[in-house]
Each structure stands twice: as C-alpha cells, then as structure tokens.
Amino acid sequence: MRLSRYFLPVLKETPAEAQIVSHRLMLRAGMIKQTSAGIYSWLPLGFKVLRKIENIVHDEQIKAGHIPMQMPTLQTADLWRESGRYDAYGPEMLRMKDRHDRDMLFSPTAEELFTDTFRSYVRSYKDLPLTLYQIQWKFRDEIRPRFGVMRGREFYMKDGYNFDLTKADALHAYNRHLVSYLRTYERMGLQAIPMRADSGPIGGDDTHEFLVLADTGESEVFYDSQITDLTFGDREIDFDNKDQCQAVLEEFTSRYARTDETHDAEIFNKIPEERRRVARGIEVGQIFYFGTKYSEAMGATVQDAEGNVVPVHMGSHGIGVSRLLGAIIEASHDENGIIWPEGVTPFHVGIVNLKQGDDATDGACAQLEAALEAAGLEPLYDDRKERAGAKFATMDLIGLPWRVTIGPRGLEKGVVELTSRRTGESEELSMDAAVARLKEIYAKHPDPKGL
Ligand code: 5CA
C-alpha cells in the first residue's frame, strides 16, 4: 500500500473529548470516527487491526475445537421472554418494534439464540460435546459510553456457547476456553490475567474475567504479584485432554487474583505484604459456567445413554474484540504514538522515502516494496511529498513496529536504515539483509488465517 493512495485521515490536534490515551491515539491515527455516542465507524487502519484481532480469535477458537457460525444482530423478544431475560435485562437492551408491532431487540449477547438453535436440532448425547461461537456486533445501551472502543454501545464481540451432557464435561469446556484465551491474548502481545469475578446478568457461579493491567482500566483488581510471572508461552496442549486443560486452569488460578466484586480482604491479607497488589485492569474477556439455567428454561435437552431426557450443561464465553484495540494501545504506546505488537500490526513495516521525486530513492523504495511483498510481508510506503520529520511523525503515530528509511546518502553506501518503533534503535544494512531480517522477525508472528 502507498500512503498517497490510502485513506489515513490523521489528526494534528489532540481531540478534546478523548480522556484516555488509547482513545486519543485511535482518533489521531485515523482508525475510528465517532458517529454518535459510543458508536464508531471503523476507518481503514482501524478496520485492518480489528480484522487481524478477529482472525487471531478465530484461529485459536478453531484450534480449541470450537465451531464458528453467525447469528443475526436483531432478535425477536419472544426468545428472551422464554428465558425470563426480556424483562430482567433493563434499559441496556435496545428494544424496537417492527412494522407488525412485534417486539424486537438488538442482541446484547446471544445465550437464547444459541440455545434455541441447539434445541432445534440436537436430540442425543452422541452429538455432544458441542461448542458454537460467533464474532458479531452487539449493542448495549451503556449509561456512560466512554473511552472510545473500550466502553462502546455498539461493539464487536466473540461469544461462544458450550453444550455438554454433564457438569464435568461443561467444566472441561470452561477450561478449554480458559486455555484458548490465554493463547489468544499472548498472541496479541498482551498479558491478560484470569480473575475470579461476578457473573452479572449472564448468571451462574463459576466465572473468570481476563484482565489486562492498566491504570486507565475500569475495574479495580487485587492480586498476588506472583500471578504476573505466569505465561502460557509456546507449550503444546491437547484441547481434548481434560487433565491437561484442568492443570492449566489450576496453574493460572493458583494465586490470588480477583476483581473488586469478589475481593475478600481476609484471604488477600494472608499473602505476604510485598506481593499484594491493588491495581486497575481492562476486562478483555469473560468465561461462564451456568449449568442448566438456559437449557431448563428453554427445553434444550438430549437423551442420555440410558434414554433419559436431560437438560444440557452450558456456559458462555466472551472476548471483547473491539475493546482489545484499546487495551493493546493502553499497554503499548509512548508519547509519540501507538506501538503495535508484531502479531496485530496493520502493516508489517513502514517505508520512508527521504527524497521523494529523486529517481534513485524512488526506485530503491519501489524495489524494497516489491521485495517485501515477495517475502509475504505487507509494507506501507510513505510516498508523499512531505518533509522527513512529518513522515517519521506519521509512522510513529500509527505505530508500525518496524520502519525502513531510504535516502540518497545511505544509497551511496549501499545501505538502508531499519528502525525498531519500540526501542528506537536503528541499524544500517543492505536492502536484502533488511528484507531477510523482517522475514525472520515475522516468521515468529505469522498472520492469522482466520476463517
Ligand atoms: N454472553 C457472555 C459471554 S459470551 C457475555 O456477554 N459476556 S460479557 O458481558 O462479559 O461480554 C464479553 C466481553 O465483551 C467483555 O469481557 C468485554 O471485553 C466486552 N464488552 C462488554 N461490554 C462492552 C462494551 N460496552 N464495549 C466494548 N466491549 C465490551
């Protein structure tokens, strides 16, 4: 992509309405545009990151054995009356009527619709276990939408629903989700800590929220500092192996980590004082086990091996896909702009031409662009007739993790300059060596396949 042909409406001024850095940077970098309170247009750069994040979520869900599908955003109120949530949900649910005066709503979550789909087709325990999921727009008429995509009214969520014969099987599904979420967040360069939480309107007793530590987070969290030493890393996991998944759950919940909703000062104070942490966090996901709450209310049953008709055990599992952009930026930025982790960057590398219009530098930039593309990488080439300083400022703002700068002086020596956005360190090397280095870096962060 060439910047002269792209649509990247960066802002010079810092937007006054944005209170936190991720919101400011997403507006300034031309990633999103507010269209009304808590509702955003996703401009090309923001859309590109959103898609990458979505595709990582798909990759990891599919690896865990979960099956993607898509539900409508508009649903009939009748389904929600069956579960009792139509009246219980309150003003966060956006309700509307169609032309026949039928009550409709914009889905804030989809337990009812997935349970209805299940009961329409599945009759036998032999078809279990089953986990279906979607990545779809949700609407919650939040009383205080704020912080950009962090607390939107319309937001993009992955929501998954497991259907199992027994509680033990459903808890294995819970653990599978926990493992797949740890992998998902790490692939995005994030540490998200599972913390015991409250289940709210979804219901059930077992629930963990995944929190990214950040001063601007909306949740107060209490944890033992040893929990932050844990990483999932590149270990192998067999998602069908109950013991393996249970062991990961036990490991990642072996230290005190709770949100304020479930915080217990008595237990917390038993941790050695130097390890006690009170901080803030951004909730980027939540997993629930709620047993037969929906299956009993809605008649989602199967025949077991003895021929008894029994309600299935269920849970639901969410990832805040659009919120993740904000969380990643909160965790990874500096005073000049965003610093994308390699796993989610919208373009792999920026090319800055220091002397636009000069045949030799223009030619070298085009050559590098072609070589990077041939290596399977996606460069963003700043080919505008701008000062070098303005080009660097744009690159720093939009946060591509690597930049190659090409100018006449370097070309005389046969070198280009490769700069890391994170460290600011530069190195001069031949064009071929720069391509080889970038290829090597991104071999560790393959682009998600997605669906
Ligand atoms: N049905 C369950 C699991 S699929 C559910 O709705 N869970 S949830 O309410 O916890 O939402 C899942 C995730 O969506 C949250 O962890 C959070 O990351 C994200 N989320 C929730 N509300 C918003 C919002 N207003 N704006 C942006 N993201 C949100």
TrEMBL record:
Keywords: Aminoacyl-tRNA synthetase, ATP-binding, Cytoplasm, Ligase, Nucleotide-binding, Protein biosynthesis. It holds the Pfam family HGTP_anticodon. Transmembrane segments: none annotated. The keyword Ligase applies. Residues 38-341 form the Aminoacyl-transfer RNA synthetases class-II family profile domain. SUPFAM superfamilies: Class II aaRS ABD-related, Class II aaRS and biotin synthetases. One of its GO terms (biological process) is prolyl-tRNA aminoacylation. One of its GO terms (cellular component) is cytosol. Belongs to the class-II aminoacyl-tRNA synthetase family. ProS type 2 subfamily. This is Proline--tRNA ligase.
